[in-house]
Design a protein that fits this description.
Layout (H helix, E strand, L loop, with lengths): L3 H4 L4 E8 L2 E7 L9 H8 L9 E6 L4 E7 L4 E2 L3 H15 L3 E6 L3 E7 L5 E4 L28 E4 L3 E6 L8 H9 L9 E9 L2 E8 L3 E3 L3 H14 L5 E6 L2 E8 L2 E6 L2 E8 L1 H5 L2
Parallel strand pairs: 2-3, 4-6, 10-11, 12-14
Antiparallel strand pairs: 1-2, 1-17, 3-4, 4-5, 6-7, 7-8, 8-16, 9-10, 11-12, 12-13, 14-15, 15-16
Length: 279
């Protein structure tokens, strides 16, 4: 972040993007010197006094580019699939390429490609299935956690806890979500998904995201749910996942979990000196 003396004369450009309603503020640190603090991220996340987002993405220089993600509460997130696709879609459109490597802080190098239909897909890497790597606090079967509802634990950079239910719309997500996020079995907290299997290649899902709350969609959560459903034998390894904000397609292949879906670059904006100076 610029020194306080510089804030009165500084403007920070940003982009607003979303993937299936999962929305982001993206700051390109390659063109401006930016160092984010937790209070600044929290202020930007405020949908009434700031800009509002589910996650914030900071782009910096890398082999192609490096991205660091932040949740609305200011904590860092190791993965954000929809934001990765949104950023990749913009970069690919600008440079005319069909694929790009993105270094994601905490997750490693992810490959994104643009298909002939213009839809951007990203390989989110292989799922993490061992309890100590997700991580959990105790040795337990990750396919059936000792929590009411016997959810599945999966790591996709972030920890995930997936419940399979008969009626996803009947779940009190606002109450149960934060309880599971902070469950003692998850030392780093967890994303929470409730999933209803519609068919062998079709899932309806709702999401509570760690550090953010209820979101219209989540890419890493969709990947985790697809992996959990396939491991349980409820679906195949390629599924359509319908979320509150739209539809994502997940394909668990030999080289990783691929996610495809819509992306949108909604607008560009500028943080004013007055806003920055108020922090």
């Amino acid at each position: 972040m610029p020194a306080m003396a510089d804030m009165a004369t500084s403007h920070w450009p940003f982009m607003k993007m979303h993937g299936a309603g999962n929305d982001f503020v993206v700051i390109d640190g390659r063109t401006a010197s930016v160092s984010l603090t937790e209070p600044l991220v929290q202020a930007l996340a405020d949908r009434h006094r700031g800009v509002g987002f589910d996650q914030l993405a900071l782009i910096t220089e890398g082999s192609d580019l490096t991205v660091t993600f932040y949740n609305a509460d200011g904590s860092q997130s190791a993965a954000c699939g929809n934001a990765t696709r949104c950023i990749a879609a913009r970069e690919l459109a600008q440079n005319g390429a069909d694929r790009i490597q993105i270094e994601v802080t905490g997750r490693g190098t992810l490959e994104a490609v643009r298909g002939p239909d213009g839809v951007t897909s990203v390989n989110m890497g292989q799922p993490v299935l061992r309890w100590q790597d997700i991580p959990l606090t105790q040795d337990t079967d990750t396919l059936s956690l000792p929590i009411d509802g016997s959810p599945v634990a999966t790591g996709m950079g972030n920890p995930h806890c997936t419940f399979f239910v008969n009626d996803v719309m009947g779940v009190d997500l606002a109450t149960i979500g934060p309880e599971i996020e902070h469950h003692p079995l998850f030392p780093e907290r967890t994303n929470v998904q409730f999933a209803q299997v519609i068919g062998p290649d079709h899932i309806r899902m709702r999401v509570w995201e760690r550090g953010t709350g209820i979101t219209l969609a989540s890419g890493s959560s969709s990947c985790a749910t697809a992996v959990a459903a396939a491991r349980r034998g409820l679906t195949g390894r390629e599924v359509q996942i319908d979320l509150d904000g739209g539809t994502l397609h997940i394909d668990w292949r030999e080289d990783g979990v691929w996610m495809s879906g819509p992306t949108a670059h909604v607008f560009d904006g500028m943080l004013t000196p007055e806003f920055l100076a108020s922090l």
